[in-house]
Amino acid sequence: MKKFPESFLWGGAIAASQADGAWQEGGKGVDTQDLRYFDTKWDKTRRTENRNINMTSEIFTKALAEKEDEHYPFRFGIDFYHTYKEDLALMEEMNMKIFRTSINWARIFPNGDDAEPNEEGLRFYKDLFMECHNRGMKVFATILHYNIPVHLVNEYGGWKNRKTIEFYVNYVETIAKGFGNLVDYWLPFNEINCSRFNPYNGCCIIKDQEKDYISTIFQCAHHQFVANALAIRKIHELLPGSKVGGMIARFTTYPLTCKPEDVMETILEENYKNYFYTDIMARGKYPSYTDRMFDSLKVAIQKVEGDDELLKANTVDFLAFSYYMSMTTTTDVQQEKASGNLVSGNKNPYLEASEWGWQIDPIGLRISLNQMYDRYQLPLFIAENGIGARDVLEEDGSIHDDYRIAYMREHVKQMKEAVSDGVDLLGYTAWGIVDIISCGTIEMSKRYGVIYVDQDETGHGSKKRYKKDSFSWYKKCIDSNGEDL
Ligand code: BG6
User: Fold this and answer.
1) With left for phi above 0 and alpha for psi between -120 and 50, is residue 458 left, alpha or beta?
2) Which Gene Ontology terms of cellular component type are present (predicted)?
């Protein structure tokens, strides 16, 4: 069995909208996540629903006028905007090698189309990234993690408008010049495949305003592929030698049975949910199955001259993905469903699930790493992985999260197997390293961190940070480079 390379990047990840808070400070504009609401009165059975995934004009307009933040957790996050030094100090204590977070576009360009950037926003991220380096951590920066300035939705219709590409590239140029080599790994888009599964966050469109929703979703995806290629070109031009990656949410899918129909269906699902996106970013062209896939979905998109050449000339340096769970596929419509990260699939009788119904499958991570590496032969990065669970803060300040340790241990073991299989794996950033607001269900009680944040659903609490049992486990894992699990 091989060991992890000495250069292996153990780390943790968060996203600006789920952590930063301070939604109206430092010159920041309102962004699309600021408008997603969580109703504390919703009952338990609705918890697994993905709220505001498909935004309506009614909710959007109401949220824009809403001054009370209580039901809008992305507005307060975990106040990372003010606490980042304290949080990074804890990460340094674990000897983390890399920290992944996203830059909030609305902090840099409050409206998205402003002529000049907001200096205070640039300053904030520059200080944050310098703090990471001072504490021995590299920076993995996501340029867009599910939120754009709201003005771009109102004025231009989000990603369906090609103008958004221009504004995005201007934003990329500004931060590439502003942060330069303070960023070690760039990621133009978080989970680019989620434009399909999370259209409000991914495409920034409003469902009832679209005549042909599914075509608009794929039009937005096309604009993002173009924007991704332009971002790669721009960052490479400005920062020679920089590493720019592509990322998907990896929806690992097995055939439920060995019935040939189930196996074929699984191939189609894998293409539709995962490979369509990585094929374009890594191979630089729309895959051969596109026409049939678009026909079956009744999708029509517009490209302009030069788009195909641009995609071909600007492919990613590495591929990243988030991995939480796996699903099964069958043509049998009677099968019991399992819930999951943005998509639902069929239950796998061999797997246990988290309280939120996400099926826990460490071997699925090894499978995914092998599949992705075999297909693209590009270095891989696990940009997100973890278990969302309800943690209990004991009176003495301890949190006994043995379930999280078990989850992380088994996934790290499978990463090691994959490295031994020959996969070129750059690093692992555990998701929500410090507890943050969950993205799908907008809850504080669905926690991923090895660091606990004392805060409830409505943003109340001491906000004090506590080390969970998983904190010392992860430190041990890092210190032994994945040997002492
Ligand atoms: C990923 C997203 O899809 O899943 C994160 O990139 C998100 O933003 C994570 O937080 C976990 O999902 P959730 O809904 O449990 O927060």
Assistant:
1) alpha
2) cytosol
To the query of whether residue 384 is one of the catalytic residues in this protein, the response is: yes
- Give domain status of residue 374, yes or no: yes
Q: Is 191 a catalytic residue?
A: yes
Residue 420: in which H helix or E strand, if any? helix 402-421
Position 226 pLDDT exceeds 60: yes
Closest ligand 1 atom to residue 432 Cα is 10
405 in a structural domain: yes
Question: For residue 150, what are the β-bridge partners?
Answer: none
CATH number at residue 78: 3.20.20.80
Instruction: Tell me whether residue 425 is in a domain.
Output: yes
pLDDT of residue 42: 59
The answer to whether the CB of 405 is under 6 A from ligand 1 is no
**Count, residues in the chain:** 485
**pTM, to two decimals:** 0.97
Q: Is 429 in the pocket of ligand 1 (CB under 6 A)?
A: no
The catalytically annotated residue of 265, 270, 384, 443 is 384
Residue to mutate, 18, 102, 341, ligand 1, most ligand atoms under 8 Å from C-beta: 341
Q: What is the ipTM of this complex?
A: 0.99
Give pLDDT tens digits for 278-298: 999 999 999 999 999 999 999
Residues paired with residue 338 on neighbouring β-strands, in sequence order = 345
Per the structure, the count of domains in the chain is 1
Distance linking the first and last C-alpha atoms of the chain = 15
pLDDT of residue 45: 45
Q: Closest residue (by CA) to atom 5 of ligand 1?
A: 439
473: pLDDT strictly greater than 50:
yes
Pick the catalytic residue from 131, 191, 270, 443. Answer: 191
In this prediction, residue 336 has a pLDDT band, given cuts at 50, 70 and 90, of: confident
SS3 8: coil
CB atoms within 10 A of CB 45: 7
Within a domain: residue 172? yes
**Residue 332 pLDDT class (50, 70, 90 cuts):** confident
User: Which ligand 1 atom is the nearest neighbour of the CA of 386?
Assistant: 11
